[in-house]
Fold this protein.
Amino acid sequence: MIEIVYKIGMVPVIAVLGIVLGLLYNGIDRKLAARMQSRVGPPIIQPFIDIKKLLMKESIVPRHAIKWLFNLMPVLALSASLLTLLYIPFCGIGPAFEGYGDLVLVLYLLVLPPLAITLGAFASGSHYATIGAQREMVTMISYELPLAIAIVSVAWLLSMANPSLPVFSLSVISNNPIWNFTTPLSFLGLLIIFIALLLVIPGELGKTPFDVAEAETEIAEGVFAEYSGRNLALFYLANAVRTIAIASLIIAIFLPWNLSTFFNFSYLSLLFDALFFLIKLFVIIFISSVFIRVIVPRLRITQVVSTYWFYTTLIALLGMLLIWIGCCLKG
Amino acid sequence: MKKIADTGNEQNSFTFCVGPVHPALKEPLQFTFKIEGERVKKVDFMLSHVHRGIEWMGTRRNPIQIIYLAERICGICNISHPFAFCRAVESVAGIEVPPRAEYIRTINAELERIHSHLLWAGIAAHELGFDSVLHYILKARERVLDIIEYITGNRITKGIMMIGGVRRDISKKQYRKIIEAMEYYKKQVKKISDILLKDHVVKARTINTGILSKADAIKLCAVGPTARASGVKRDVRQDEPYAAYKYLDVEAITPATIGKETRGDVYDRTLVRLAEIRQSVNIIVECLKSMPEGKIAYEDKIPKLLAELKSVEGEGIGRHEAPRGEVLHYIKLIGNETLFSWKVRAPTYANLLSWVPMLLGAQIADIPIIAASTDPCLSCTNRAVITKHGKHVVIDHEALHELSVKKTLALRKVKHD
């Protein structure tokens, strides 16, 4: 009973934390990118201001749109993003819905927001949005393959070391840092997989160079072309929360350490763990979102597919191979 | 203004419009594409959303007032248009420009080329989604605008051209600052070249994108960097040297002259423009070195100049190599205070049709960069849409010919009266 109350109680906490952190990191992201482009950039709280403005504005539904689908999809995107966060270790504490869903569920939940965006775009009846939606689908198909390879390799490495554990459970993964079970060869393989996953994040989040679905100069924000007001704000929030969710997932798998395991902070340990988590979050977002975005131009959709299907998949497969050889040599 | 090229079947395609208002376009222009998947199968475009009737306004003003108007044809080419116009008037009136003025005109024209090409490079990077480079280049461009302000007193519309010369001298004291800025640009262009010509992702987006073959470039009368990037060695400064270019050795830059292979794609257009910035820097330094002393205008007193122009009769053409290509001004004076006729052919007008072979078969993702690669300047170009009773009427070839015949007959009548 207490457990259920705790779980239900955690939902609003995680939701608010996810949204606030998501917007805050979005602001930091924008400011840093601006400074790296020798611009002044917006203030860090700009995303909050944007959301406030968007919530006050009218939500326009195009005449040719399928109204219910068009209005439903932003809600679905945000709720799916928030739900993802509940299954991932967050801010130094274990997943709120621990034991009710594992990594495979998280992977499915991560697909939901882009799917909602795609459906919403198709429902809007605009050509720009349709092209954007087609591109979003193709991008999604492209990055899922390296992502799946990476996740399977990690789980497999873990299962080789601990055959008895439920290796897809995220709390198990984050409690047993996978780096501990590696030989030099599989360490290298894991590192390569880590890099491949960092390359997948900008695609998942629709950031340059993989922002083909939004491509401002080509198809005028594509999938979001017809969205405005509250609906756009919801998508904006969903994207911010999803950024946090994906980065937290990467942290849970590859950088699961907590400060409290190394030092004794007694009752302050939760605070220090949370702070340390925020730093890790910043590092992941900085590398995969800000840094890559600033140094490369946007790719064509065909180049996105070849980047993911050939190069990133090859990298991931190489990592998998190294892990396999490493494990075989050890075993 | 209208060109349709059809290669696709109708079934799987859909119509896709870009413009008249679109984030990729800085000025109004409407593209209508037939798209199959992501491929362009059919291109059609339409202009003239911002027709301002400048030529008409010009025929109600005297030549010196027109200089002011000509500067405002285009925000970027505001030396090129008055330059071509002044040359046209000078050729009719037989006015000889003092050598020093010719040098100052050349320096200003080349400064304009530098800032225009830098702006283009920035916009091109933005169209590729490479905003870091946009901001970097626009920051680098500030320096040339400062120099323009230092020489002419204005950043954008310079107000320096005058019939028979220029309105402001460049003093000896100012040379040093200009030369320093030119040194700065030599370094900057190298850096920008490193980004735009050597970066792998940029290369993946620009090489073999929007190819314009040499034959097409000649057939469609492309001008400026668009033609030169396809290997057509055409440059007014080289073919018909004027102003200070006749004292200098200017060679049209094609990819072949810088030892590169000619493909006629977006990459080559970038290459040619960046090489032209280097060329402009050298021309300016050369000009400052060899600039003679002397008068800067044929006639200082404007009323006297106007009185002289009042009695001139005849037709004249002024050509100038603007950053985007050859700009051509035609004027006719009939011994009146005002101009009888004024015709402007901006370079973009000549480059419009080359969009069609470039865009056919391209991906949607390449549309912005291909459209931008000719450096279109549409406010110079807009001319012929008639709106009658709230309805747009596009004039086709036959109708235009009919109208021209009517107009010519009317003009003949006026002359004989």
